[in-house]
Design brief:
The protein has 383 residues and is mostly helical. It is built from 14 helices and two strands, in the order ααααααββαααααααα. It starts with 13 loop residues before the first helix and ends with a helix.
């Protein structure tokens, strides 16, 4: 995600992609009329509800709950998909709008339903997401009202999951850092060989950045108090990212910036946030460690499944993708392995869906062996 993000699968049917490419290619920069989506930046839809910034007197939490951050990241990515969906409508593309509107339920709901149910928030959020999706599918002229309700319900769920931590600048900063990491992953998948190859992934990155950008002003004062130099550097890099993501619509084949440019800017923001608010930082994992962890999580999933712990097995299998393979997808794509990545994505989906469906253990073990073999190839590519 990005749950976190961290999308389980972000592919749309080829017919939708083809339709979008045709629509976009018909709006070339030379022929597009003034003010058309092709040459006019699409700003993020405005928030229907405002949230008070964290108090400067709030006592920072020394240890941030990883599970809470993970759930908050998933909800923030749901919000990002809603923003991307509305921007698609404003750009005149209902197909992409429906794809993004469908992602929250199709990709994230399994992860957030349990914790939200405990607080009585699952039903109203699910209903709001469904109503918005149905409005988009029928191309309703009044889509903005259900969109605003869906965003508002998502924001309420996000704040409820965070609890008291929502007023802690360190928690907000970690959430922003998660979102920016997802932006980096999505953008690296979107651009290959200097060309925009996947429009949907670019739009995912745009949506996640839009949410991060809306969250940052709430902690800007605390960042400034922590380090004026860090605050200045963050503003500089955010201005550069605003330029890159200034338009939701870009021409097929034309990348606004290289993945390295985006990665450098995002990395600088994450680093300076950590410096200003004294957040814990960790060195990024290399491919050897990442792939070893993926294999471990898959084996844990199979062991849990063998013991009859079907739900736990599904969660572990999902984490093997979300917390593992998704972290290296962009690097593999940059090395010309897009089809291989898509094949592995489908295998991971088949594994977790098989656990949900109750398929025989030996079938899932055979599938996991195939995935392990493909992971060995991924390691060869990345080393």
């Amino acid at each position: 995600m990005s749950l976190a993000g961290q999308c389980l699968l972000r592919r749309v049917p080829h017919s939708i992609v083809a339709a979008a490419v045709l629509l976009l290619s018909s709006c070339g920069a030379e022929s597009a009329p003034s003010g058309s989506p092709a040459d006019t930046p699409t700003s993020a839809p405005s928030m229907s509800t405002a949230s008070a910034p964290p108090s400067s007197a709030a006592t920072p939490v020394t240890t941030l709950d990883e599970e809470t951050l993970k759930l908050a990241g998933a909800l923030a990515q749901i919000w990002g998909h809603l923003e991307a969906s509305a921007a698609s409508i404003e750009a005149g593309n209902w197909d992409f709008a429906a794809a993004h509107a469908g992602h929250p339920i199709a990709e994230y709901w399994e992860q957030v339903e349990g914790p939200l149910s405990e607080q009585g928030l699952a039903q109203p959020l699910h209903l709001a997401l469904e109503r918005y999706l149905h409005a988009v599918e029928r191309q309703a002229s009044d889509y903005q009202q259900p969109h605003q309700v869906a965003v508002s319900q998502t924001r309420q769920a996000l704040e409820a999951i965070a609890g008291e931590s929502w007023n802690d600048p360190a928690f907000r900063a970690e959430l922003i850092r998660q979102l920016l990491e997802s932006v980096e992953h999505e953008y690296s998948e979107a651009v290959q060989d200097g060309q925009l190859a996947e429009l949907v992934e670019y739009q995912d990155a745009w949506g996640f950045f839009t949410v991060a950008r809306q969250l940052y002003p709430d902690i800007a004062q605390q960042v400034q108090s922590g380090s004026s130099e860090a605050a200045e550097e963050i503003e500089h890099e955010l201005a550069e990212l605003d330029r890159i993501f200034g338009s939701f619509i870009v021409q097929p084949g034309q990348a606004p910036a290289s993945p390295q440019q985006v990665s450098d800017a995002l990395g600088e923001v994450r680093t300076e946030l950590a410096k200003a608010l004294q957040l814990t930082t960790t060195e990024p994992k290399g491919p050897v460690e990442t792939i070893a962890e993926i294999k471990t999580m898959m084996q844990q999933a199979l062991d849990a499944y063998a013991l009859g712990e079907q739900d736990g097995a599904y969660d572990l299998a999902a984490d093997a993708y979300l917390e593992g393979f998704e972290k290296i997808e962009g690097d593999l794509i940059q090395r010309g392995e897009r089809e291989f990545v898509e094949e592995l994505e489908l295998q991971f989906k088949e594994l977790r869906d098989g656990m949900r469906q109750g398929r025989p253990l030996e079938e899932l073990q055979a599938l996991a062996d195939e995935i392990r073999g493909n992971l060995d190839h991924a390691l060869e590519v990345l080393q």
